Amino acid sequence: MLQKTIAILLPSLMLAMPAEGTGTEAGVSGGENQIPRVLIFNGLPGDEEHHRFFEENLGAIRSALLRRFRLPPERVRVFYGPESAGYEGVATRERVLAELEAAVARARDGDASPVWLIFHGHANRIPGGANLNLPGPDLSSLDLRRALGSFPEKTPLVILATTASSADFLKALSAPGRIVIAATGQRDPESETEFPVALAAALDDPETDGDEDGTVTVLELFRACQKRVLEIYESEGFMVREHAQLDGNGDGRGTQRPADEDAEPASRVALLIPGGKRFD
Questions:
Q1: Under a CB-based contact definition with an 8 Å cutoff, are residues 21 and 210 in contact?
Q2: DSSP states along 8-45
Q3: Is the domain defined by 2-279 classed in CATH 3.40.50?
Q4: Residue 193 pLDDT more than 70?
Q5: Domain residue extents for the chain
Q6: Distance separating alpha carbons of residues 170 and 271, to the nearest angstrom
Q7: Is pLDDT at 15 greater than 60 in this prediction?
Q8: Considering the chain, what is the average pLDDT of its residues?
Q9: Distance (Å, rounded) from C-alpha 274 to C-alpha 86?
């Protein structure tokens, strides 16, 4: 299913593709036109097939953020492999925690830039939560909760857990002022997800901006990913095995169909599309 999924939904995009514009043209809505910081963490591939897929999908996500939303390259940082291959370094437990500590410190020092965290790769359930599978020691949902515990509520924080067992990350990382998306629900099996492919494609698709206002809100992105995941399963004739969840109000309960209390916060944080209708 993995190879067909890539062929159906992803163009061949390289990690190092440059942005077509940066600086003040890029940002988010929600009262301030601050440029987001996007941190993408990918752990162990496990085999060569997944390594090739992770490289392609990470490249597609990064490329969409650089080209479509014109985020500065230094604001879209991918941790997967060596710097010589175009990454920021290997996503070890120590490195991920250090980057999260730095993000918390910046926000507490007054940097109002929204922070987007994307967790990509493999994960598994453990008693009381889940682990991200990283080179060396794994990183647990409890580790992540502790690392982000003092992130200030006033600074937008968007977390996308795209892995298997991601409902456990949603439960652990939920808090007021945050928007957390998980690829799976609590009852979904612990198996590979199609959400990362859907995310890359949705970020690059003009139709994700459903109301054509020149922004892609977190809510629009979530719904677009849901739609694409269903299309992937339907195209293969398989039973749907993942049910993405969104928690927008910080109550720790994800939902497939966000009502006002979850949808409203997720509709206030958005990636701006330079040159979109909003800017005409």
A1: no
A2: HH-----TTPPPS--GGG--EESS--PPPEEEEEE---
A3: yes
A4: yes
A5: 2-279
A6: 21
A7: no
A8: 89
A9: 25
